[in-house]
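for the recovery benchmark. tokens below, seq after
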């Protein structure tokens, strides 16, 4: 048995045995066996089943949210949103089975038409930071496309995924169509990569493991989507609404205790307003409510594990801390929101993904310098631009090498719009209207009429 530990109390809350390799193979074989019948379900019936799955998840929002508060230390407000996101993503992609249109292409001597054929078994590998939404972004469009899914939650946060697997069965999704397989990355995750009956891997996690997954998939020419790390820039120009930019900046990086691939963990501020911005940021950071995540008022909970807290803390050993918020003492892996001012762009804390509530603030000189600094990173996942000049905001948006940007806002992830990274932040796109097609192969068929 492997104990699941609550990051809020440090106490065990459940035992989830890791799945042994032979059992993983048997479950993949079962998902493969379930594929022909699932792809043959008529589009309208598959849509109805997914809508029903969405409704059943909707009936269990509070239960799922409470599980996530206990297992991942998410604030109850966030956790309710996350469970609601699974419900909404399922409802959204329930529209896809009836809209997987092919094309009719003009050719000489006949008719050519295209079909979207489902790939088969899809392996979804999920990290611990957003166990519910990231699972849903993979499994909902895959099921809609007619694929069957095996899903591996992260070792430390398996509880909500296991419950979603049970709710799928309750909703009438047939046995073997959606299977949650808890266990180790090196066993379950690797088997998704190496098993010949898994046709595609959807991996969300660190860039290092993503690289291994991609190399493993290459050995079989296996389809792969990678959603990896980030070190995103929040760019604040002197002409911006500085009060608003400063008031929201903490939520752009400290949400989920900074354990967010889209965290705006670098704030770049035009030099002429740097001091004023820092003056506004300090009370905003002090105002972040870090407390028991079960409280409705909580805005930030603890870090996921003691080991992760140690890693996060190591980043502020040799850098100037400008100011910090507060956090509870006692049990749990607490870490206060922390604002640092690196001495150089080469500082480790400025370049690496810390994945905790630490934000680096640096000044820039002009528009070109802002774009240069934002792009001076291995990553390219997210980011924000604050300016009242819409032309500049658009120019900078086009100049920043990043997949998901927001102007005068720190929110850029919506299930209606495509999501994914540039550079070492990933490969391929999730979400948006085209996501189900990524779980299909396009086939063209020519019919001679002459
Ligand atoms: P991780 O790479 O350690 O683990 C992610 C998942 O991969 C886990 O389920 C793990 O068990 C599994 N895994 C580990 N080794 C494996 C292997 N050899 N083969 C197959 N699977 C294996 O990442 P993490 O620490 O759980 O998550 C944090 C990272 O995820 C951060 O870098 C963060 O930026 C990234 N992330 C990216 C996105 C995105 O959408 N771009 C979203 C959330 C998190």
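predicted aa per position
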């Amino acid at each position: 048995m492997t104990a699941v530990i609550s990051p809020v109390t440090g106490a065990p809350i459940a035992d989830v045995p890791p799945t042994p390799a032979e059992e993983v193979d048997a479950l993949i074989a079962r998902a493969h066996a379930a594929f022909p019948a699932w792809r043959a379900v008529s589009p309208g019936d598959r849509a109805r089943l997914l809508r029903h799955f969405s409704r059943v998840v909707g009936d269990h929002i509070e239960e799922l949210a409470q599980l996530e508060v206990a297992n991942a230390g998410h604030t109850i407000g966030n956790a309710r949103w996350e469970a609601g996101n699974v419900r909404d993503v399922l409802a959204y992609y329930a529209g896809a089975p009836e809209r997987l249109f092919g094309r009719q292409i003009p050719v000489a001597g006949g008719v050519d038409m295209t079909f979207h054929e489902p790939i088969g078994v899809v392996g979804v590998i999920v990290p611990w930071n957003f166990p519910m939404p990231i699972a849903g972004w993979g499994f909902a469009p895959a099921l809609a496309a007619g694929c069957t899914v095996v899903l591996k939650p992260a070792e430390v946060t398996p509880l909500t995924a296991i419950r979603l697997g049970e709710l799928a069965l309750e909703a009438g999704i047939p046995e073997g169509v959606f299977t949650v397989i808890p266990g180790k990355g090196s066993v379950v995750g690797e088997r998704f990569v190496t098993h010949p009956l898994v046709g595609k891997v959807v991996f969300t996690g660190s860039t290092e493991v993503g690289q291994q997954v991609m190399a493993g998939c290459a050995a079989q020419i296996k389809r792969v989507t990678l959603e990896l790390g980030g070190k995103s820039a929040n760019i604040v120009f002197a002409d911006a609404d500085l009060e608003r930019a400063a008031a929201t900046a903490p939520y752009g990086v400290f949400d989920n205790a900074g354990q967010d691939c889209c965290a705006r963990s670098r704030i770049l501020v035009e030099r002429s307003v740097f001091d004023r911005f820092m003056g506004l940021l300090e009370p905003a950071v002090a105002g972040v409510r870090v407390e028991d995540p079960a409280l409705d008022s909580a805005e930030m909970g603890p870090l996921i594990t003691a080991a992760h807290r140690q890693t996060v803390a190591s980043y502020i050993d040799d850098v100037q801390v400008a100011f910090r918020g507060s956090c509870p003492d006692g049990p749990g892996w607490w870490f206060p929101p922390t604002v640092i001012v690196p001495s150089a762009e080469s500082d480790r804390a400025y370049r690496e993904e810390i994945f905790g509530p630490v934000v680096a603030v640096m000044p820039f000189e002009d528009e070109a310098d802002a774009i240069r600094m934002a792009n001076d990173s291995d990553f390219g996942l997210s980011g924000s631009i604050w300016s009242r000049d819409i032309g500049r905001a658009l120019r900078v948006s086009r100049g920043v090498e990043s997949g998901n940007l927001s102007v005068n806002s720190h929110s850029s992830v919506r299930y209606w719009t495509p999501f994914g990274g540039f550079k070492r932040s990933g490969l391929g796109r999730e979400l948006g209207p085209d996501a189900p097609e990524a779980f299909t192969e396009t086939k063209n068929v020519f019919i001679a009429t002459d």
